[in-house]
Amino acid sequence: MVAALLCALMATVLMVAIHRFATASLTEEIVADGGRIAIQVERGRVDYPLARRQSRRLQIVDAQGRVIASTQILQGKPPMATFTPGDKSLSTSIVCGGVFPAHECNIVAAQRAHRPDGEWIIYSASPVIPPWIDPWLASVICGGALVLTAAITYLGRWIAVASLRPVTAIRAELDEINATSLGRRVPVPPSDDEIHDLAESVNHTLGRLEAAVEQQRQFASDASHDLRSPIAAIRAEVENALQAPRETSVTEVGHAILGSLERLQAIVQDLLIIARLDAESPGARDPIDLAELVTAECRMRHHVRKGCECLLEPGIVVIGDRLRLGRLLTNLLDNAERHADSMITITVRRAPGDECDGHRFPYGMAVLEVIDDGQGINPDKRELVFQRFARLDAARNRDAGGTGLGLPIARQIAEASGGSLQIEDSPRGARFVLRLPLPAPGPVSAPSPQPDGADGSR
Which domains does the chain have, with CATH numbers? Predict the structure, then answer.
């Protein structure tokens, strides 16, 4: 339809242009014929026949308005027009009816001829050109418009089908991808266009989905494995007690399974925190003094046999969830206690920075470091410890108290707070560096109370 409308418009414009050009040419011919007769009249000698074309009509009118001579079709008829050139030497107009056949219009040109007895008028005329100009020309133009419409329609459909063929292939491949075939990818067309970019975006999305599903599967497998161990230990103790009820007591069984229950509780609590973090549930937005947070945490660990040195710069306030940041610090200190030989160092300082670790800190950043003097972590395994249920070699796993979720939870809390958590180089041991954005300069509101049982409650 669009092609037909455009071609019809083009044909109409073309016909109008040709009609105007033909009308202008015909008018020039009419004026030329009248001028020729006017010159002859002024010289006193008129050649007959007056018209050289059968369609041309001429009249010579004297100063008294009488028709002196005319072409054969107008013999015996009054002047074909009543208008005169006036002050001009030439005047043209369209005249319909009168001496002309009914329903016929003519282009009439009036010109002056100077005679001794006055000014004579020479009228020259010819029928106007119809809108279709010539039947053969109209047929050619209309036929060409129809052919062009058909060609544009066919070519446009062919181009559309060829362009959308990759989209059809992409859709067909997407329809066949399911949970058991996430490794498949849609075909990428060789053309450098939007469909090529779409296919690459779809493949990138499929890659992220595959990684997420694989992570969920691995997470479920690891969680099942870690949950199975304490449950098996509890089951074994209960079965032993049932097989020899007289040789055991409730107290002995309770003490035997209490450790497994505590480990089971810790795993379930960590899984609940991870689920809430994965759901991106918003935390509180309170001002938190990092030095006070570290001091309160260290005060709760007075029973720890390993030394703790705190180098805290006061007055460094960040915006975040106090319970979540407390859980982050707890996880870092728990990890440091398990792997430190004798000393844990905690530092809090302010640092300038615009961008670090892929995060933007337009107003500076607060840096919290937790350093232990243990054996440290190899650089190629520093990212591995932030994977859920990750296990390093025995040099780093000194006890079975960890769940393998503390450091992943700490990093998720850091990223949810707009910061980052990395392991960086240290002369000895492991050095965990937490960076959090400082708020914009201005008044800071007082902390809001937290409900019991929020994330990170201990």
Answer: 2-127 (3.30.450.20), 194-278 (1.10.287.130), 286-437 (3.30.565.10)
Secondary structure string (H, E, C) spanning 33-78: HHHHHHHHHHHCCCCCCCCCCCCCEEEEECCCCCEEEECHHHCCCC
Give the relative orientation of helices 135-176 and 2-43 as an angle to the nearest 10 degrees. Answer: 160
**CB count, 10 Å around CB of 264?**
19
Residues 6+ apart with CB under 8 A from 178: none
User: How large is the angle between the packed helices 250-278 and 194-243, nearest 10 degrees?
Assistant: 170
pLDDT digits over 261-309, tens only?
A: 887 887 787 777 777 777 777 778 889 999 999 888 888 776 666 778 8
Structure tokens given for 116: 């001794």
The token pair that represents 230 in the structure block: 């304490």
**Residues 181, 175: Cα–Cα separation, whole Å:** 11
State how far the Cα of 324 lies from the Cα of 415, in Å rounded to an integer. 12
Task: Give residue 9's Cα distance to chain centre.
Answer: 36
Q: What is the 3-state secondary structure (H, E, C) of 264-302?
A: HHHHHHHHHHHHHHHCCCCCCCEEEEHHHHHHHHHHCCC
**Across-strand partners of 107?**
94, 126
Q: Is 311 helix (H, G, I), strand (E, B) or coil?
A: strand
Overall pTM > 0.85: no
Give me the phi and psi of 7, to 5 degrees please: -65, -40
Q: Which residue has the higher pLDDT, 300 or 354?
A: 300
Q: What amino acid is encoded at 261 in this protein?
A: L
The top-scoring range by mean pLDDT among 250-254, 280-284, 395-399, 405-409 is 405-409
Contact 63, 117 (CB under 8 A): yes
> How many Å apart are CA 39 and CA 223, to the nearest integer?
115
- Residue 439: asked if its preceding bond is cis (omega within 30°), the reply is no
Between CA 369 and CA 424 the distance in angstroms is 10
Run of H or E residues at 436: strand 431-437
Whether the predicted pLDDT of 451 surpasses 70: no
| Residues 414 and 328: beta-carbon distance below 8 Å | yes
